């Protein structure tokens, strides 16, 4: 654990709390991609299968439980109480392609050929592209409310901080390497490039998130 990893975890935690607060306060999931939320639920479900098999620390266990439970709760809200506000026509990204791609990469490039390791690798590859349905939906509408923008920024910022964490560990820990996480993390952060630019040039200046025409 280091300050960059901790900051990344807290930003990730904050992103989920922002989204849940937004859903509960507005009683609407308009502008939120259900497909992205389902992908994140699958990411956590396949990554944390070791939750009951190994113990690292109380912090590690609590974070895993939170991410699993919160992802399930968000999907429940969007499928259940807030279903009427969900616009399926806008949430039209073809998730089968990213699922198939993550599965192929997990089978071709896992850390080890065991069930848990292949599923862990799958979760890493899938997380790298799980935000794509949300970004695609924002591209289709051309705008997003500020709370949704803060949520997406926090998600992207969490991964960017993890890259700094990896660099720090590379230079401070002997023999540290994790090429799967590194490559997936860089790809994931790069997907936020255009979003980050608009967020810094508009949202942080008090304007609404709007794509240039």
Question: What descriptive keywords fit this protein?
Answer:
213 residues, ER-Golgi transport, mainly alpha, transport, two-stranded antiparallel ribbon, transmembrane helix, ER retention sequence binding, single chain, 2 strands
List the topology elements:
Blueprint lengths: L2 H24 L7 H14 L10 H22 L15 H14 L6 H15 L2 H10 L1 E2 L1 H27 L6 H13 L1 H9 L7 E2 L3
Antiparallel strand pairs: 1-2
Helix pairs in contact: 1-3, 1-7, 2-3, 2-5, 4-5, 5-8, 7-8
Describe this structure in words.
With 213 residues, the protein is mainly α. The protein has one domain (3-210). The protein contains nine helices and two strands. It has helices at residues 3-26, 34-47, 58-79, 95-108, 115-129, 132-141, 146-172, 179-191, 193-201, and strands at residues 143-144, 209-210. The chain has a two-stranded antiparallel sheet with strand order 1-2. Helix 1 (3-26) runs parallel beside helix 3, helix 4 crosses helix 5 and helix 7 (146-172) packs antiparallel against helix 8 (179-191). The termini are far apart.
